[in-house]
Fold this protein.
Amino acid sequence: MTALDSCEPQIIRALEKDGWAVLRKPHTIKTNRRSVFADFSLQRGVNGRMETIIVVEVKCFANEDDDLDELYRAVGQYQYYRLALNRTEQAYPLYLALPNVAYYRLVTDTTVQEILRTNAVKLIVVDLVEEVVVLWLP
């Protein structure tokens, strides 16, 4: 199973405020040899019906000194999960959720911007204090 990232509860509350409901926690992604676990999947109603589903992996980037190591792990994990999801019948969009403080700290580096863009990482940026989503970057 997955370890709970320290900021996950605030990110879930922010997404719930934004109209999302937790569908599965964790969200199991099966490959031909193993199962991996994204932090959760969410659903959101469209025209009164629950139709949109996304999968979310949370990274807190809690220690600025570890930002690059956590970024390496996050992007690699994101790529693996996205490929595994695309090979299933449930090819839901995958998002990486992170705190706004970490996001703004990371994207001041143009190399990080290029890594995120090149790897087509979809982001959800959350203000952990206010528990609100501040950016969706598809």
